[in-house]
Structures are given as structure tokens and as C-alpha cells.
Amino acid sequence: MNKIEVKVQPAYIAEQSDPSNNHYVFSYTVTIRNNGSMPAKLLTRHWVITDGDGQIQEVRGDGVIGEQPLLQPGEGFQYTSGTFMNTPFGTMHGSYQMVSGTGEKFDANIPAFQLSAPNTLH
């Protein structure tokens, strides 16, 4: 059974942001854990980024940070990436396409999480 757990920890990057020009930078650290009984390899990513004005940006690509990690049962993989928006808050969610040790492709859900600059109402 394919049991991929995804947890995300977002952070606001004040040093790279410029609120006076509506430029807000966020990082997010993702932990992917294989809680299943067989190996699983991450093939592609699909992110849906929605800013505070409801503008949606979709990002698709191979792997994460240039890697396509193979996770054995019980193993995890962690990486940090980033994004920017024109509003001080928004949300992200998405999925990773994975392939199991038997060649079966499946999606691992990335639950929605908030991106928020300090002292912003949302």
C-alpha cells in the first residue's frame, strides 16, 4: 500500500521581500515520508499557489530541487524551496506524482498551507 505523508513548514523571508513594491517572499520546508510497505520514487511536482487576491499560479516540473528521491519504507526526504507573491498572504497545495516499486504511478497529496507575512490580517 502506498502511504506517503507530506508535511510543510512555511516561513516569511523579510530580507528578500519588498512590501512597498508588493513583493513577498516565502520559503517552505517539505518533509516527505514513506509510511508504506514498498519503495516509492518521486517523479514530478504540481503546486497550486493562490495569492490574497485569488490569483492562481501553477507550477509543474520534474522532481524537487533537481532530485527525484527514492524513499524506502520508513524513509523520509526533506528539502526547502521558495516562492513569491504580490500579496502578504496566500495558500499553497498540490501533489507529487510517485511511482511504487511495482511500477504503479500514484499521487501523493500535499495538504494546503498558509503563507503569511507577519502582522497581516487574513
Describe the structure.
This protein has 122 residues and is mostly beta strands. It has a single domain (4-116), classed as Immunoglobulin-like, CATH 2.60.40.1470. The protein is built from no helices and eight strands. Strands 3, 4, 5, 7 and 8 form a five-stranded antiparallel sheet that branches. The mean pLDDT is 95.
Name the overall outline.
Answer: elongated
What is the radius of gyration computed over CA atoms, rounded to a whole number of angstroms? 16 Å
Q: Total number of β-strand segments?
A: 8
Strand content: over 45%
Helix content: under 10%
Topology-level CATH name: Immunoglobulin-like
Q: What's the name of the CATH homologous superfamily?
A: ApaG domain
Elements, N to C (H/E): EEEEEEEE
The biggest sheet amounts to:
5 strands, antiparallel
Kindly report the average pLDDT value: 95
Could you list some keywords that capture this structure?
Immunoglobulin-like; mainly beta; three-stranded antiparallel beta sheet; single chain; five-stranded antiparallel beta sheet; elongated; 122 residues
In short, what is this structure?
The protein is mainly β and 122 residues long.
Q: What's the layout of helices and strands?
A:
Layout: E1 4-12, E2 24-34, E3 40-51, E4 56-62, E5 70-71, E6 76-85, E7 89-100, E8 105-116
